[in-house]
Amino acid sequence: xxxxxxxxxxxxxxxxxxxxxxxxxxxxxxxxxxxxxxxxxxxxxxxxxxxxxxxxxxxxxxxxxxxxxxxxxxxxxxxxxxxxxxxxxxxxxxxxxxxxxxxxxxxxx
Amino acid sequence: xxxxxxxxxxxxxxxxxxxxxxxxxxxxxxxxxxxxxxxxxxxxxxxxxxxxxxxxxxxxxxxxxxxxxxxxxxxxxxxxxxxxxxxxxxxxxxxxxxxxxxxxxxxxxxxxxx
Lengths: 109, 114
Prior knowledge:
The complex is a heterodimer. Chain A has strands at 4-7, 10-14, 19-25, 32-38, 44-51, 56-59, 62-67, 72-77, 86-93, 97-99, 103-108. Chain A is mostly beta strands. By secondary structure, chain B is mostly beta strands. Chain B is globular and about 40 Å long.
């Protein structure tokens, strides 16, 4: 049974810092890995999708890596801004998508 | 196409009442998924459809829950005899095939059972 773990559960950093969110999964038989952002009380917004054959994807200040053999992914956020405050969810895909519990990120002005 | 649409956005109901939620997926997506999310947790899988066929149901989907996707287009999720523990955000997602190109989520329906 696939299990996805995200560390840390919560993170608070001052504006401008670079930061890394971690995700691990137990079964490497995945099609892809997707990072989502969720604002309080809202739905999920897709940030980055990494296919199982890829090592990383970049979008603006965001960079996500995937090491399928070790069951790990990281989401790197450069030059953090208060608008980045949200919960970030990692999800792996096989027949369906399985989520971690998320990292609640707070960027202090 | 404006993405995945869910209605209603919010629903408050009394314990014991039945509720129904609707999801309209992206039109060319043949797979549709339902998830439930409680406060502070990641979304939990409930069920998914490929076209009109319901291919998998989670053990979380008790016999009070039923989902349909007639004609492989929109889907409905019905909860009968609601309980306070059913209070959650219900999320719908759609994808092409096995999610090779990722999953697109709707804004969710927040259910409060009083």
